[in-house]
Amino acid sequence: MRSVSALLMCSVIAGCTAAQPENDEIVSAYEIPLQSEQERAEFMSILSRLTEAEGLHAVSATEEETAQINDALPTAELTLRATFWRGDAQEITVFDQHDPSDQVWVMFSRGDDFLADRLREQTTREILVRWPDTQSLPIMPNGNIPWPSELIRTPDGYIVTPSAARKYYGDVDS
């Protein structure tokens, strides 16, 4: 249980600086506007249906594990945390940061083969059809997503703030 909690805690952190192993590297990520518990349930149902059809298994944080993460990272305020695995390869990570906007982030890892690509494309397509206000999230050179405070929303998705861009890319023009 403790190792699961530690794994969940480490994997929830966005914006960390360590590079990811190639098959764990995040290749696409989105912020999905889920405005109610019903929409959250529908979203998780879609993910479950698509991942089960591809042979993945889900691991969801228990209330106790979520509380442990929130105790360790008080700014996270998670209420939802799930990962979807093909064997020992994590392909999809879902979590929220329970703020007034109730946005959920979904991140897709590279995976090991074309099946990961197919699942990512199909899942993204269904998400965008159902929630057209879904926004893409930038992926940094180290394969991670910046902290929410380092993002600026634009009509085409999020971009990184100039100060954060320097952290991730070095000195860049604004």
Word description of this protein:
By secondary structure, the chain is α+β, with helices and mostly antiparallel strands. It folds into two domains: 22-134, Double Stranded RNA Binding Domain (2-Layer Sandwich), CATH 3.30.160; 138-174, no CATH class. The chain is 36% helix and 25% strand. The chain has five helices and eight strands. The chain has helices at 2-12, 37-53, 63-72, 114-130, 162-169, and strands spanning 26-33, 57-60, 81-86, 89-96, 103-109, 135-136, 151-154, 157-160. The strands form two sheets. A six-stranded antiparallel β-sheet has the order 2-3-4-5-1-6, with helices on one face. A two-stranded antiparallel ribbon has the order 7-8. Strand 7 and strand 8 form a beta hairpin. Helix 1 (2-12) packs across helix 3 (63-72). It is globular and about 40 Å long. It starts with a helix and ends in a 5-residue tail after the last helix. The model is unreliable at 1-20 (pLDDT under 50).
Structural class: alpha+beta
Residue stretches low in confidence (pLDDT < 50, at least 5 long) are 1-20
How many alpha or pi helices?
5
Across the major sheet, the strand order is: 2-3-4-5-1-6
Strand content: 15-25%
Task: Give the fraction of residues assigned to helices.
Answer: 25-40%
CATH architecture of the largest domain: 2-Layer Sandwich
The string of secondary-structure elements, in order, is HEHEHEEEHEEEH
Q: Identify the CATH class of the largest domain.
A: Alpha Beta
Averaging pLDDT over every residue, what do you get? 76
Q: How far apart, in Å, are the first and last alpha carbons?
A: 45 Å
Tally the structural domains. 2
Rg measurement, Å: 16 Å
Fill in the CATH topology of the largest domain: Double Stranded RNA Binding Domain
Instruction: Name the overall outline.
Output: globular
Count the strands? 8
